[in-house]
Write a structure and sequence with these properties.
Layout: H1 2-29, H2 33-39, H3 42-48, E1 71-74, E2 80-83, E3 87-88, E4 96-97, E5 105-110, E6 117-122, E7 128-134, E8 144-148, E9 153-156
Antiparallel strand pairs: 1-2, 1-9, 3-4, 4-8, 5-6, 6-7, 7-8
The structure holds zinc ion.
Zinc ion binds next to loops.
Length: 159
């Protein structure tokens, strides 16, 4: 009796420890379209879940300056995406960063609108963020412009 209880307890503990990150990941990914509509504003939903693009020069963070402090998070799932220190003034109408926090984005080939571009998605919730442009000559460490829809971002200044 004692042994059987012990075994059950131990095995459920193992399952909890081993699969908890996976379950969390899956629960984020398995949100229904109705779940997303409840979390996001209609404008956010159109960009993040339908790969839309916000109008240029309209976003809250388009012209916020680079800063040593602060992190831009995904508005859909709160995953940290960009350090505020990697933001730069590209004058393109959307927030621009020269590199993402490692592992935070997934890059896909996008052949829509008659162009071949690199699309960025949040690696946690798969929300569309924007596109990456390279070799444009910006004086940044990577010569890469992560052109992110402002509406996908949430600036956290508390660290
Ligand atoms: Zn996300």
């Amino acid at each position: 009796m004692m042994i059987s209880k012990l075994v059950v307890k131990s095995s459920s503990l193992n399952i909890g420890t081993r699969f908890l990150p996976l379950l969390r990941y899956k629960s984020t990914m398995s949100k229904t379209e109705d779940d997303w509509r409840a979390i996001l504003s209609p404008a956010q939903y159109r960009v993040l879940r339908q790969s839309g693009t916000e109008a240029p020069f309209t976003g809250e963070y388009t012209d916020t300056p680079a800063s040593e402090k602060g992190v831009y998070e995904c508005v859909g799932c709160s995953q940290p995406l960009y350090k505020a220190s990697t933001k730069f003034s590209a004058h393109c109408g959307w927030p621009a960063f020269y590199e993402a926090i490692p592992g935070s984005i997934t890059v896909l080939r996008d052949e829509s609108h008659g162009m071949v571009r690199e699309e960025m998605r949040c690696s946690k919730c798969d929300g569309h963020l924007g596109h990456i442009f390279k070799g444009e000559g910006y004086k940044t460490p990577t010569d890469s412009r992560h052109c992110v829809n402002s509406i996908c971002l949430k600036l956290r200044n508390d660290e």
